[in-house]
Amino acid sequence: MDRGExxxxxxxxxxxxxxxxxxxxxSLFVAICLIWLxxxxxxxxxxxxxQEEEDDGGIWVWLGLLAAELWxxxxxxxxxxxxxxQLVFRHPFKNxxxxxxxxxxxxxxxxxxxxxPEIEPPMMVINTVLSVMAYDYPTEKLSVYLxxxxxxxxxxxxxxxxxxxxKSWIPFCKRFKIEPRSPAAYFNTIIDSxxxxxxxxxxxxxxxYNEMKRRIEDATKLKRVPxxxxxxxxxxxxxxxxxxxxxxxxxxxxxxHSKDPNNSKDVHGFILPTLVYLSREKRPQYHHxxxxxxxxxxxxxxxxxxNGKVILNVDCDMYSNNSESIRDVLCxxxxxxxxxxxxxxxxxxTFENVTKNDIYANTLIAINEVEFHGADGCGGPMxxxxxxxxxxxxxxGMKFSGEYKHKWKSENDLFTEGNLQELEEKSKxxxxxxxxxxxxxxxxxxxxxxxxxxxxxxxxxxQINGWKSAYYNPPRKAFLGIAPTxxxxxxxxxxxxxxxxxxxxxxKYSPAWHAFGKxxxxxxxxxCSYCLWAANCLATLYYSIIPSFYLIKxxxxxxxxxxxxxxxxxxxxxxxxxxSLLEFLYCGGTFKGWWNELRIWLYKRTSSYLYxxxxxxxxxxxxxxxxxxxxxxxxxxxxxxxxEKEIMEFGTSSPLFTILATLALFNLFCFxxxxxxxxxxxxGFGAYEKLGLQVILCGFLVLINxxxxxxxxxxxxxxxxxxxxxxxxxxxxxxxxxxxIFV
Length: 743
Known about the structure:
It is a single chain. By secondary structure, this protein is an alpha/beta fold. It has helices at 18-45, 50-56, 59-79, 81-84, 94-101, 122-133, 153-176, 183-189, 196-222, 227-232, 290-305, 325-333, 365-376, 392-395, 420-428, 454-464, 487-506, 521-531, 536-551, 566-586, 591-620, 637-644, 655-680, 692-704, 706-714, 723-741; strands spanning 10-14, 88-92, 108-114, 142-148, 251-256, 274-279, 310-315, 319-320, 342-346, 388-391, 468-471, 479-480. Helix 6 runs parallel beside helix 7. It is globular and about 90 Å long.
């Protein structure tokens, strides 16, 4: 390379097909406008006599349809923000990074968060910890922090065991350059190797892992730490004053550190990454602010132990799947021209246990493969709470200015005097309940408080402060996690996300007004589209009930198929369906996977989003408080087997299931009534020409609900819907159906 010439550390490529898509989007918008015009024109020009109201359903029904279609159109416009501009794809040049900065690579702090040892098993947690300790990065510049909001002795014991296993595991990973570096994931995917040395080493390392796993799982099952471990390690004495996971002192232990070289070297004598366990102080009279509070405690504690300039945070079930990820991301941060303004780099949230056709639509394929790439062209994607690399300054509330230049050279500003015990005692005060009183933590510094999705609101605040974000989605994913394996878990997860996003819209940090003029308009629209997830429930519910309701009496709410007004309806339905299918297939999905995603799209909008909307409204009037819900990371063997076979898991009673089953059965009754009349009535199906769209809509709702009907009436396994749900939903659906028949 010529010394005077600038060679970027990453390149940015633009997606193709923007012109074609824009033409399609414009044509679709014209059709949507024609639908609005049809509704509005019918309401204005029709004289609604009593007889006419009986024939067309009445003005209030049409006003409801107009409102629903206005909402669908408005929301569709918001969703175009990330598709209208070109998609951005980034590619790092790690060789250039090594040539320029290998001697001054920055320290990196990695935060792993766990909260409940029963929902998040210690073995899963330490596999994530071991995977990030084994990054292809100088170990003396790597520090790993485990935040345990459950304050569990078992988790601490598991981390101690992992620290010993790491002395053999990390050199094994680096010697043979294995991927992935989570032991459990590696042993599950390994195939026989022709390398004799690897074969011998593999047997030995697997034996060590299995012995460690047995000890941890025995302690987990017995719910107590072995007596010899309690006597051997003084860190367990910190549990002497432990009352409960909601009432205890700060528990902090620096397990591996360069200040203790005798204990912190691997089997070949090389230093290991710093490893710290933290369970922050909790008291009943203090609000602990869930994960945001844990992250802010980690920010403060790490600032005097390692003070890494780059911070990676991952959930405890998201193990590292790519050992080169840190170097990839540093190419974005350390680029001399474009890197200064990048405040965080987000990786997609991907899962290892997703089936071929992704029965629960956990991959969020449109968001990960299309929308976030589009967001990258508008100023950057949102922060989603895991798999995200931050500059410490941006996360701590610093505002970006044009004069800012990041100094990557290390500064000796750590607590260097004294021993590890003194460093631990000094750090504990930073994780106390009272530390944040009368400070800007949770407001202008660190992660924001007061919202179930603290990650989104924090990322938005960073972008309002002038920082940009980047989206990095390589072929080999940076992280892999565990997706929910039952429908109820999926619905509860989306209820929490949509409720938190809707609260952001109504808060002082709302992208609709607080971000106006501070971030690009396209990015602002994109944020609003996510924040309005919950509000989609009303229009979707209206369309799921009213057209079928009036189909019973043969009252048309849409243009008949021979009318010219039928064309825009048909164009929007067919055009959007074909586009979404092609987009899904282009992103690597299957036809059945697309159909499954449509089903989950409907289920979320008619159940999760409804509860999210109602809970948010109740909270506004002081009747409800937000609660943080942890999604289970383990499932029973039977559930796992059904998941692998792509059989939908219900298995329990829930109001969410009652809503879904009632809607499904009501539409089934309506559709069967149509079939009965078509067979018995003169003219057969031809008599339904004016009701074509309503019949198609009702038929679609019946077809997409087939797994629900199976769960209600046909299945006998433990994953079926309980009889109580079948009874309640059947009664409600039948009452709704008969109420119109006999009125």
